[in-house]
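Ticket #256: bound-state structure for 2-phosphoglycolic acid.
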Amino acid sequence: MKNMLIAGNWKMNTNVFESQKLVEYILGFVKTNATLKSKVLVCPPFTSVYAIGQMIENTKLLLGAQNCYYEEKGAFTGEISIPMLEYCGVSHIIIGHSERRSYFKEEDEIINKKLLAILEYNLTPILCIGETLDERNQGKTFDILINQLDKDLAGLTGDTIERVVIAYEPVWAIGTGISATREQVQKAHDFLRHFLVGKFGEKANRVYLLYGGSLSEKNADEILSIENVNGGLIGGASLKGDSFCSIIQTAEKYII
Ligand code: PGA
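RESOLUTION: The complex was predicted; output attached.
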């Protein structure tokens, strides 16, 4: 069995108008291809979440957010809670993205709290993990991945693991135009599957393992065809409707 999730991470791009235009395009594609088996997700900036939620209601397109706070409500200036997002139609929330880890100093302890809170609200966390170039060059890639998974997934049981989506995003491949090679992705994803099954049991075979980092319509075939790759978390290429939809089309070929 091989499932696919194609997720667009728009980062800090698009105002409400631009978001709506982009979603119109993607929705057009999703509706025309009524037999699509891949899950398709868009993660616009917070300011567009409600408007997009209205547009995608009762369609197959899924809505995600790029961050959240783990408390339900209260004096947390500038933060957005999970129930607030859920009310807008959000089903998935990205956490632990390397940009949040490095620019906003988000640590594993906070990421773990967010992950557990998202699961408590019955939404789906998309946990991003990945090594820097230095760490890869020092041969530490797998140690870094294990360390992030151990800390970020703390408190999870074999029953809940299948509700988590994991995105392997080598930091050096994000936004650089230099994707990891097929061999690098395959090794990392095989390792992740093996590690997760060892730690959580059989249900971890159903965890979606996404690849992220300069995934585009040009290298989608090479990467999405890898056995333990269940889709992609796409930044730059998700901002162009035709590129994003072309990646969805490629994913369809590899669903079993
Ligand atoms: P990219 O971003 O596709 O622009 O490399 C991926 C991500 O950061 O999720």
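RESOLUTION NOTES: The domain at 5-252 is CATH 3.20.20.70 (TIM Barrel).
TICKET STATUS: resolved
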